From TrEMBL:
It holds the Pfam family RVT_3. Residues 9-73 form the Reverse transcriptase zinc-binding domain. This is Reverse transcriptase. CDD domains: RNase_H_like. Residues 132-245 form the RNase H type-1 domain. InterPro entries: RNase_H-like_dom_plant (IPR044730), RNase_H-like_EbsB-rel (IPR052929), RNaseH_domain (IPR002156), RNaseH_sf (IPR036397), RVT-Znf (IPR026960). Gene3D superfamilies: Ribonuclease H-like superfamily/Ribonuclease H.
Length: 268
């Protein structure tokens, strides 16, 4: 079966209100997901270990076919994931398996794969700290407040910090400063395996890119990369604004306190 036929079959599956599942499936078919193996190929400093079984590296084949977690889910969904007995590339193995399923099983496979990827990204793996960063910017006074929240794999808040900045050019720079603050704060607390998340896609892309940055935040991007050198593992991920809401709420509270605090003096 060709991949174009597989795309048609996936899109024809009756999941009327779950377009995101089909889009996620397209990314899984083409291995366009940020598994640790893919992150390593992009020369990012991550530990390539499956977050579910911790026995093998996290490739798309292992995560969606060979891992015990994927097989347990498939058994409960009413189908079994066959092993790859011959050296067949991932998308063609998936195309062959998907075409062999009945309509109901095809729906369950799409939902199962979406659940696996959603669960994998819901929380950081054990011993990894998730650091959300954000900033509040006051354009008229060129002031910014950066906020960092560190949580463990269970979602428990481990630490939080707020840092004021003055003479900040724009909101874009304030976001970059918040990202840098997240790395510095995590290192000061002794965390060595971290996942940094923020809702500025441009900054996440610049930090993950190996090409020399020439934008206004180039010095900050350089400092961020230098600060990560002594960490065991670090990854930078984009989080939509709604996913970053906790950080935003705390930012608003802190900003109000800062504005009401008469003892806060700005440097000249």
């Amino acid at each position: 079966m060709t991949l174009s036929i597989l795309y048609v079959m996936v899109w024809a599956v009756n999941l009327p209100s779950k377009i995101k599942i089909k889009i996620a499936m397209w990314r899984i078919i083409n291995n366009f997901v940020s598994t640790f193996a893919n992150l390593q190929r992009r020369r990012l400093n991550v530990v390539n270990s499956c977050p579910f079984c911790h026995s093998l590296g996290e490739t798309i084949e292992h995560l969606m076919r060979d891992c015990c977690f994927a097989r347990q889910l498939s058994d409960k969904a009413g189908f079994q994931l066959p092993p790859n007995h011959v050296d067949v590339q991932w998308p063609y193995w998936l195309a062959s398996f998907f075409s062999s399923l009945r309509d109901k099983q095809q729906r369950m496979l799409l939902v199962t794969y979406w659940v696996i990827w959603f669960t994998r990204n819901k929380a950081p793996q054990a011993n990894v700290i998730k650091c959300n960063f954000d900033s509040a910017y006051l354009a008229h006074s060129k002031e910014a407040i950066t906020r960092v929240i560190c949580r463990d794999s269970g979602g428990m808040i481990m630490a939080a910090c707020t840092t004021p900045h003055y003479h900040v050019v724009n909101a874009f720079v304030s976001k970059a400063l918040a990202c840098f603050q997240a790395i510095v704060f995590a290192k000061d607390l002794g965390f060595r395996r971290i996942v940094v998340k923020g809702d500025s896609l441009m900054i996440i892309q610049k930090v993950n890119c190996n090409i020399l940055d020439k934008s206004i935040i180039a010095p900050i991007i350089h400092d961020i990369k230098e600060a990560t050198r002594n960490l065991e593992s670090v990854s930078f991920c984009f989080a939509r604004r709604e996913a970053n809401m906790l950080c935003m709420c705390l930012l608003v509270m802190v900003a109000l306190i800062e504005l009401q605090c008469t003892g806060l003096k700005k440097p000249r």
